[in-house]
Amino acid sequence: MRMPEPDRETLANRQTIAAELRRIVPGDGVIVDEDALRPFETDGLTAYRTLPLIVVLPETVEQVAAVLKYCHQNSVKVVPRGAGTSLSGGALPLADGVLLSLTKFKQILELDYENRCARVQPGVTNLAISQAVDADGYYYAPDPSSQIACTIGGNVAENAGGVHCLKYGLTTNNLLGLELVTIEGEIIRIGGKHLDSGGYDLLGLLTGSEGMLGVVTEVTVRLLPKPECARALLVGFNSSEAGGDCVAAIIAAGIIPGGMEMMDHPAINAAEDFVNAGYPRDAQALLIIELDGPEAEVDYLIEEVSRIARENGASSIRISESEQERLTFWAGRKAAFPAVGRISPDYYCMDGTIPRAKLPLVLSRMREMSDKYGLRVANVFHAGDGNLHPLIMYDANVPGELDRAEDFGNDILKLCVEVGGVLTGEHGVGVEKRDLMGEMFTDEDMAQQQRVKCAFDPKALLNPGKVFPTLHRCAELGRMHIRQGQIPFPDIPRF
Q: Which branch of life, at top level (predicted)?
């Protein structure tokens, strides 16, 4: 993985750039000391790190706008950053770029229960929103495993998901409005408290744009009333294939659980050692299925799901009998990533999405890859929507193991595309999957996507080096071909 070569002129002007930025963000808001820069050198993709040129921590929207305007006028690259939990390298800094950290934007601005929404700043953590409205009987649905740390601004950038997104949708399905600052320093608002906006779906375009189109400074999210009843089932199977068949059968029956997660044998035991959630240690696959709604409906669906599970060879079924037991069932799944960290010096967390029906095939092929590369893999994933999170275990201190882990991960992602899936479900492309974009998109596809970036960021200053294997100059993408002196479509007005 290579990043763009640093611009020598920008490196030489570091002190001047820092001085100008201090005029905009006074006090301790501009960091240039090497030791102080060190905490920002990486994100959740910790195998890669680079010291940023400068870190800026603005406190107001006006400061964000002024910083971006200065960087645009002086052709200085900018990497927006939230909590730095990105697992695809989306917040990796650049040696010749300003790292624009939004960590000081951490206020919940408004809780509007009449319109069932909340206005929050981008530095508010995902979990903090649900905690703020819990006493009033509401919550925010998307709940990534890192929700205690990840921020809502980063969730917007990556279109984050979570265990309850099968029924309630990803970040994009739970957003109502954004305040955005463009690279030119213009402050704009898109959407609002209303359910939908006229015109182009710019809100959908910006969600998941990985900090390449603008900097989000305010988010309006949808709040949902907590369901009357929620219960969870732990269903064990003697094979991952049987678990996958059960997932497909539940969805085929027209049942959409609040969440449906799957863990394989290594992940089950790692999580059980870590949390003591009561998982069946002898199971080769475990489904955690949550059903919510009116109590009578939940009782009926539990019977239906139990029947389907037995028909698909379930070796054990356990149903939560209290709210605390339901939360305990989920605690192990939420802690699966750190739990695997206890049984391996390092692990590489993947993210790809496949059609549900292909789950047994993909799990079987991954076992073959595990043997091929000589590396263990624990599988934890959102089974209901086919979003896989294989955790490839390796030791970075052993020469060549990181390279093997990355090759293993690349093969998994290629397999996802091969069976009709996509490269990412919720972690984004970043730098991790950047060089695999050609597996999924043609050159024409990527050129069209880059034209969208050109409309927002013509100088390619926002988060360069991410998403696109080769970022073309906007002039190159937009140039007109004239043949024998005739321009194409001469009747179209040109400005």
A: Bacteria
